[in-house]
Amino acid sequence: MAKLVEGLKYSESHEWVKVEGDLALIGITDYAQHALGNITYVDMPSEGDEVNAGEEFGAVESTKIASDLFSPVSGVVAEINSALEDAPELINGDAYANWIIKVKMSDPAELDKLLDAAGYEAVCK
């Protein structure tokens, strides 16, 4: 089984969320990066763009496949991880240390709809 991190929230579409105040750091799970293989490109929105829970905000491309990214929460993109523009493979090295976007949440209650580590592990089986 791929690595899981307690204390994060997970979506069924394989994104994770780490909450820091009113910011949600969003990345893809270790399970997802294993399934994708060597990541070659991360398509990210621009800072200031609005994202909506459950809607596409970008994509991750690998040597095997391209996969859409879906935002687990709604809000405004406060920051993108610009390190991924030149080194998308950082996600393969540690999927949880390398967030993709930070979102200033407009509705923190949306976090209640996400899974904990045990719930996400059940989805992956």
Describe the fold and architecture.
This protein is α+β, with helices and mostly antiparallel strands and 125 residues long. The chain is 18% helix and 35% strand. It contains 4 helices and 9 strands, in the order βββαβββββααβα. A 6-stranded antiparallel beta sheet has the order 1-2-3-9-8-5. A 3-stranded antiparallel beta sheet has the order 4-6-7. The N and C termini lie close together (9 Å).
Show the helix and strand layout:
Layout: E1 9-10, E2 15-20, E3 23-28, H1 30-36, E4 39-43, E5 50-51, E6 56-62, E7 66-70, E8 75-80, H2 83-86, H3 90-93, E9 101-105, H4 117-124
Antiparallel strand pairs: 1-2, 2-3, 3-9, 4-6, 5-8, 6-7, 8-9
Helix and strand composition category: alpha+beta
- Describe the biggest sheet? 6 strands, antiparallel
Q: Determine the N-to-C terminus distance.
A: 9 Å
Radius of gyration: 13 Å
Give the mean pLDDT.
Answer: 96
- How many DSSP H or I helices? 4
Report the uncertain regions.
none
What's the order of the H and E elements? EEEHEEEEEHHEH
Helical percentage: 10-25%
Strand order across the largest sheet? 1-2-3-9-8-5
Number of beta-strand segments: 9
Instruction: Please indicate the percent range of residues in DSSP E strands (runs of 2 or more).
Output: 35-45%
Task: Please outline what is shown here.
This protein is of the alpha+beta class and 125 residues long. The chain is built from 4 helices and 9 strands.
